[in-house]
Write a structure and sequence with these properties.
Radius of gyration: 29 Å
Shape: elongated
Helix content: over 70%
CATH architecture of the largest domain: Up-down Bundle
Number of helices: 16
Structural class: mainly alpha
Strand order of the largest sheet: 2-1-3
Low-confidence stretches: 46-53
Largest sheet: 3 strands, antiparallel
CATH class of the largest domain: Mainly Alpha
Mean pLDDT: 79
Length: 394
């Protein structure tokens, strides 16, 4: 069984590791043998669970907490206020657990780390770095800005995908209805005149006759394929394989890389501004990247550890666009790499948004035309014998 363990390492840094063990106790013992102080552990059992927990609104929580802290409430009072506002819910249990941990003398970062489903390691690390200077509201502000920018780009991608997905779904349903229901019935009507039909009409109606004779088998095969596809997409190995194939596509792969690099720049910038060292910041950002970019990021970290500047290390590892390289060099001269990484990410986010707009405007008409031609071709092939019969009657 696989366990996700959140712990403190020898440098008192929050780390998240995945361990394979027989049970919870064995996972804790394995983590201790690696020199880790475990404060949260969670099973990642592959068994399907009917009930899913409600996602904790980390962004909304951070905004409300910052507002209460800016208003003059201390941390415990602010968290108690938010817990009372939630009523009896899973969110209220999380907040009450954090308040209880604070009352036991634990720092806010350690209390939040006890709920890894609500507070990811990046969030905990930012708060932990802010606790050294006592400026938690500023850290919350940086985190809110970071999460809002990520949500903005994500919403842009999702909104651009909705209409093509609906259009494609409706088109597939219409074509499926024609091929699996209408065509078999036309095949029965034309059965006696099969030898006089146009060639492509014969092919279409032969398919319709086959479907009509094997409807149960076809339905079973179709449902099986849909089920296998749905199951495959839940497997991390299949998603990694599909993602690797997408990265190899010339146009799409380069855009996906820019999008991933933008996330890397934004995350690294936020962590640098929180006071986290560069190597540690890149290590923490590694989990946000796709598999093809993780080995280059490890190479960049090694170069930085050997004294190379961040701009040179990322460029040597292939993780810097020409614009990013120039801007990072400027940030290194000015000594404000955290802010500069944020500017780089904003530049590339705008570039990704422009390409999404262009692709949407070009893809939607092309998809509509393709679906229209396919549906129209099926209808014409079905009715062509009727047209020929009407012409012969005249």
């Amino acid at each position: 069984m696989r366990f996700e363990v959140h712990a403190l390492d020898a440098a008192r840094q929050v780390v998240a590791v995945s361990l394979e063990a027989a049970n919870d106790a064995a996972a804790r013992e394995l983590a201790r043998s690696k020199g880790l102080e475990v404060f949260a552990i969670q099973s990642r059992s592959p068994v399907f669970r009917m009930k899913r927990s409600v996602r904790f609104p980390t962004l909304l929580f951070s905004m409300e907490l910052k507002s209460l802290l800016d208003a003059g409430l201390n941390l415990v009072e602010a968290l108690q206020t938010l817990a009372e506002k939630e009523g009896a819910s899973e969110r209220q249990q999380v907040l009450s657990g954090i308040v209880a941990a604070l009352n036991r003398g634990e720092p806010f970062s350690q209390a939040a780390a006890g709920f890894p489903d609500a507070f990811p390691p990046l969030y905990v690390a930012t708060i932990k770095a802010a606790e050294r200077t006592g400026d938690v509201p500023e850290a919350l502000g940086r985190t809110i800005e970071y999460m809002e920018e990520l949500e903005r780009v994500k919403k842009k991608v999702v909104s651009a995908s909705i209409y093509p997905a609906i259009l494609l779904g409706v088109g597939v349903l219409v074509m499926g209805f024609l091929l699996l229901y209408v065509v078999p019935r036309f095949a029965q009507v034309y059965e006696d005149m099969a030898g006089t039909l146009p060639f492509f009409s014969q092919l279409l109606l032969a398919f319709g006759g086959f479907v009509g004779r094997n409807a149960a088998v076809m339905s079973g095969v179709l449902l099986t394929l849909v089920g296998v596809a749905a199951w495959a997409f839940t497997r991390p190995a299949f998603r990694s394989w599909a993602n690797a194939r997408l990265w190899r596509l010339p146009a799409l792969g380069s855009r996906m890389k820019v999008y991933q690099l933008s996330r890397l720049y934004r995350t690294t910038g936020m962590l640098l501004r929180a006071g986290i060292p560069a190597v540690r910041a890149l290590e923490m950002a590694e989990g946000l990247l796709s598999a093809p970019l993780r080995p280059p990021l490890a190479q960049a970290r090694r170069l930085i550890e050997h004294g190379r500047p961040m701009s040179a290390a990322l460029a040597a590892a292939g993780l810097a666009t020409p614009v990013a390289s120039r801007m990072m060099a400027v940030g290194e001269r000015g000594g404000d790499m955290g802010r500069m990484f944020g500017e780089i990410a904003r530049f590339h986010d705008d570039e990704v948004a422009r390409h999404i707009d262009w692709f949407t405007r070009a893809f939607e008409p092309a998809l509509m035309a393709a679906l229209g031609i396919a549906v129209g071709l099926i209808v014409v092939l079905m009715y062509m014998p009727i047209f020929e019969l009407a012409g012969s009657i005249r």
